[in-house]
Amino acid sequence: MTTPGRFVPGPQHEEIVFLTGSGISARTGLGTFRGPDGLWALEPETEQAMHAELLPDTLPQLWSVWGRMARIATEHGPTPGHRAIARLGAPVITQNIDGLHQAAGSEVVAELHGSALHARCLDPECPWRGRLRPGSGSRPEDHGVPATCPVCGAPTRPAVVLFDEMLPPDALELGMRLARRADLFVAVGTSGTVFPAAQLAPVAKAHGATTVLVDTAPPPDPSMRAVFDHVIAEDAHEVLPDWERGLHRVGGTSFLDPF
Ligand SMILES: [Zn+2]
């Protein structure tokens, strides 16, 4: 059921672009990173391992943490929110590293923080990339990845962006391009306060997009919400399938959703 008065997209919105954060994946058990129940608070030693200057000593922790993330994501699969976005055919800019937009069928995904489903070479200049077969353990071999890079022989590492590391330029450029061309820009499950996500909604708005935040717990500070034309403080897993049904004019029971 659509809540009366709630914003809904219409046929005038031809370029819907989503920005997603950990909130859209929370029900998979991946959890969020920030906040009192976030991973960083629960496992401070993990947070310490995420600093790039501690490489390569922290590689075992990184394989353990991100390999586990990849396994949880792979086993759970996408949420109703991921699937609704994919069925809308909308491109996605994501802060998530769980690969669930691609698993849902989204074709254009700008992964601002890299991917836990992929490995790369410790040498940032080396082009090698590989895909994980996530298992459990603190060695790359535990996740189906060779210990050393097949191209140059350096150690391999999870392809997740750590603190103090540059964001992938390709993903950043794609994200900015998508934000500029959007006529409807929808942030889902992200406070949108962390760079570069904090820049994307203002860019979209400056280029004429209607901006919407869908988050069960939107930031209470009005200045953080000011960039959004509409704030929907509801569950994206209900809101987005509603939108998709509305835009595709299908009945409410046409899509069976196991989650
Ligand atoms: Zn290499």
TrEMBL record:
<keyword id="KW-0808">Transferase</keyword>
<keyword id="KW-0520">NAD</keyword>
<dbReference type="InterPro" id="IPR026590">
    <property type="entry name" value="Ssirtuin_cat_dom"/>
</dbReference>
<protein>
    <recommendedName>
        <fullName>protein acetyllysine N-acetyltransferase</fullName>
        <ecNumber>2.3.1.286</ecNumber>
    </recommendedName>
</protein>
<dbReference type="GO" id="GO:0016787">
    <property type="term" value="F:hydrolase activity"/>
</dbReference>
<dbReference type="InterPro" id="IPR029035">
    <property type="entry name" value="DHS-like_NAD/FAD-binding_dom"/>
</dbReference>
<feature type="domain" description="Deacetylase sirtuin-type">
    <location>
        <begin position="1"/>
        <end position="253"/>
    </location>
</feature>
<dbReference type="InterPro" id="IPR050134">
    <property type="entry name" value="NAD-dep_sirtuin_deacylases"/>
</dbReference>
<dbReference type="InterPro" id="IPR026591">
    <property type="entry name" value="Sirtuin_cat_small_dom_sf"/>
</dbReference>
<dbReference type="InterPro" id="IPR003000">
    <property type="entry name" value="Sirtuin"/>
</dbReference>
<keyword id="KW-0378">Hydrolase</keyword>
<dbReference type="Pfam" id="PF02146">
    <property type="entry name" value="SIR2"/>
</dbReference>
